[in-house]
């Protein structure tokens, strides 16, 4: 079993990164965990979109 971590500031970038990884994956996907974190820096909201692909 292996994992691949993804961390992007925009959801479309995360989608692209995961799709690129899956297109080249020579194995089976076991699970994908997804999370969004939001923080405030001054008057700006900062988003962090992360995913962990568990595969074999």
Question: What does this entry look like structurally?
Answer:
This protein is an alpha+beta fold and 56 residues long. The protein has one domain: Dodecin subunit-like (2-Layer Sandwich). The chain has one helix and three strands, in the order βαββ. It has one helix at residues 11-23; strands at 2-8, 29-41, 44-55. The protein has a three-stranded antiparallel beta sheet, covered by helices on one side. It is elongated. The N and C termini lie close together (5 Å). The model has no long low-confidence stretch (mean pLDDT 96).
Oligomer: single chain
Overall structural class, as computed from helix and strand content, comes to alpha+beta
Measured between the Cα atoms of the first and last residue, the distance is 5 Å
Q: What's the tally of helices?
A: 1
Identify low-pLDDT runs: none
Largest β-sheet summary = 3 strands, antiparallel
Q: What number is the mean pLDDT?
A: 96
- H/E series, N to C? EHEE
The strand count comes to: 3
**Spatial strand arrangement across the major sheet:** 1-3-2
CATH topology name, in short, is Dodecin subunit-like
Q: What is Rg?
A: 13 Å
Can you identify the CATH class? Alpha Beta
């Amino acid at each position: 079993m292996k994992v691949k971590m993804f961390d992007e500031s925009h959801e479309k970038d995360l989608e692209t990164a995961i799709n690129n990884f899956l297109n080249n994956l020579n194995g089976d996907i076991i699970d994908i965990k997804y999370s969004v974190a939001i923080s405030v820096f001054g008057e700006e909201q900062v988003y962090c979109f992360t995913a962990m692909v568990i595969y074999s």
